[in-house]
Amino acid sequence: MRPWLLPLLLLLLAGPPAVRPAPPTCYSRMLGLSREISRDFQRLQAAEPSELCVTYLPRLYLDIHNYCVLAKLRDFVASPHCWRVAPVDALKDKVRKLYTIMNSFCRRDLVFLSDDCSALDYPIPATTVPPDPQG
After folding, report:
1. What is the pLDDT along the chain (135 residues), one digit of tens a residue?
2. Could you write out the DSSP letters of every residue in 70-117?
3. Coil, strand or helix: which one is 66?
4. Which of 5, 13, 68, 129 lies 20 to 30 A from 114 at CA?
5. What's the whole-model pTM score?
C-alpha cells in the first residue's frame, strides 16, 4: 500500500467538513415568506376553481419594499371570503405570520422604497423575453 493512500482514504471516509450555514436574517425571512405566499396564492387560484370564494379573495401581489404591503396583508387576513376552506386558512396563517414579522420582529430591518398602493393592485408583469426590435 502506498503511503499517501491511507491519508486520502481517511479523508474520504471522514466526509465533507461540517459547515453551518448562517442563520436567516429578518430580511431573508421576510423575502422568502413573501415569495412562498405569492406562490401558494397562485397555486390556490389555479387549483381551487370549484371554490367560488377564491375568486373573491383580495389580489395578493407582495412587494415587501412597498409600504402599502402592510395594509394589503391586513386586508387579506380580514377577508370574510372562504371561511373554513383549509388551503385558504393555511395561506391566511402564513400571511398573518409575515405581517407579524414585518410589523414587530423586523421593523428596524425593513426599508420601504415606495408607497405606491396601485402597484400592488396592478403589478407590472416581469418580461423574460426582450422586445422584438423589428416589431
Report:
1. 566 666 666 666 666 655 566 667 888 899 999 999 999 988 888 876 667 788 888 888 888 888 989 999 999 899 888 878 888 899 999 999 999 999 888 877 778 888 888 888 776 655 444 455 554
2. HHHHHHHHH--TTTT-HHHHHHHHHHHHHHHIIIIITGGG----B--H
3. strand
4. 129
5. 0.70
